[in-house]
Amino acid sequence: MRASVPEWVEQGGSDALRDPLRSKGRSLVVDVDEVMVPGSAFPANIASALTGHFRAVTTAIAAALGPAARVADASGFDPSRARFDHDAVTFLLQVLGEGRPVYLCSETHPEPFVSAVAQHLGVFTAWAAAPDGRSPAQGEDLPPALLQGFDYIGSEAVALPGFASRVARTGRSAAAAPAPAGLRSWVKLLRVHQYAKNALVLVPLLTAHKFAFGSAATSLFALIAFSLCASAAYILNDILDIKADRAHPAKRNRPIASGAVPATQAAGAMALVLVAAFAIALCISVGFAGVLLGYFALTTSYSLWLKRIAIVDVVVLATLYTVRVIGGAVAISVPMSEWLLAFSLFIFMSLALVKRHIELASQPDGAVLAARGYRIEDKSMVAILAAASGFNAVVIFTLYISSDTVRALYSHPQLLWICCPILMYWIGRVMLFTQRGLIDDDPVMFALRDRASWVALGAIGVIMLAAI
Predict the structure, then answer these.
(1) 53: buried, middle or exposed (CB in 10 Å: 19+, 13-18, 0-12)?
(2) pTM value?
(3) Within 13 A of 355's CA, how many CA atoms are on the CB side?
C-alpha cells in the first residue's frame, strides 16, 4: 500500500473544482489505469516514457490546489482516440455527484499522459503525476481531509464496496493482510455452477444407447475431467482479465477481481485441478486425454486472443461445446455421429450469438463491446445470425430423422418428429426472451434455471426413449 502524498497537484478546471473540506463524504483517489481499456492508449512515442517506474507513493492528492488550470503537453498522446472504460467513468460521475472529490493519480505514467486523460474525461477534481521524474518524500504533509481517510481505486488491498477495484481505506498506515479465502470464494473461482455444461459429455452415451454400467461410469469420469479442466481455463481467464473484470458491473465480484482470492493462490489452484483433470483423462484413454488437451489449448487461445475477434469468438465457443460431445464419444469408444456433430455446432453457435446479443444490448448507444470487436449497430445482425443458426439445427435434426442411421437405432423413428416443434418452440422462446431483455447473461445457464426449458428437455427425452 502507498503511504505518502505528492505535493505536485494540478487543477482539473474550475467546473470540477471542489473543496475536500466541504465534501459530504470521503475523497476518492483513482489510478489512471482503472479508467483505461487495457492496451488502448499507448502509442510508440509514449511507450518509452513509461519504462521508468516511480517508486513514489501517490494514494492521495494535496488539497492546496493552484488557482489556474494548466494544460499539459500530451507528448503525442491523443485521448480522443483512446478507449475508456464506460462503467468506471460512470461510477466516478456518480461519486462526483455525491459531493465527493475525485482525484486521478499515477506513479508509473508521466504527467502529460495523466493530464491529458484527466482533462479529456472532465470528471476529476484534480490529478497528480511526477512531472520531473522525482519521487515525493515519505513524510510529505497530508491535507486535513485526507488525514481523515480516503478511498483508493487501484491495485492494492481489498475490494471497495460498490466498485470493481481495490481500495486502501487510509492514507497513512499499511493495509492489513487479507483474510483467507472461504469455501464459497473457491467454489465461485472454480465456477462449479458451470459444471452442468459438461453434461454434454454424456450425450453420446444416450444417443448411442450405451446404458451399461461400465460405459456410464467412464462417461461420469470423463465429465469430472472436463469439469476440472474447465475450472483451470476459467481461472486462467480470470487472471488475464483481472483489470477488465474490476470495471465490469457483474464480473467485478469474481474472486480474483474482488481480491477474495489472491492471484498467486488462484494460479496454484489452476495447476492443481489441471493435473487432476489430465490424470483422470489418462486413466480413461490416451485418445480422450488428447481431446481434453485440445479443449484446453483452444479455450486458452480463446482467452488470450480469439475472444477479441468478432464472429470468430462465437465460432470458437460453439466448437468448445461440441468438443465436449466429441470427448464423450471418444471416452466410451463409440463413433462420433456426423449428425450429432452438425447439430451441436449449429445449436451452440446460436446460443453463443445470443450471449453476444445480450452483452451488446447492455451497452449504451454508440459504445463498443470492450475487447470483443462488436459495435452497438451489430446487435440486429447478431440476433439474425442467432435465430438462423438455431433453426438450422432443427433442419439438421429433421434430416437426421430421415437418415438410415436413425432407423438402425430406433424402432419407431417417426415419433422423433414430435421433437421438432418442441425444439422450434424452445429456440423461438430464447430469441424472444433475449429481445425482451429477460435473459441476463448466459443463455445456457438461463436454460438450466428455466422451468419451461426443463419441461421441453424432459419431453424430448421421453419421446426418444419411446422411439427406441
Answers:
(1) exposed
(2) 0.59
(3) 22
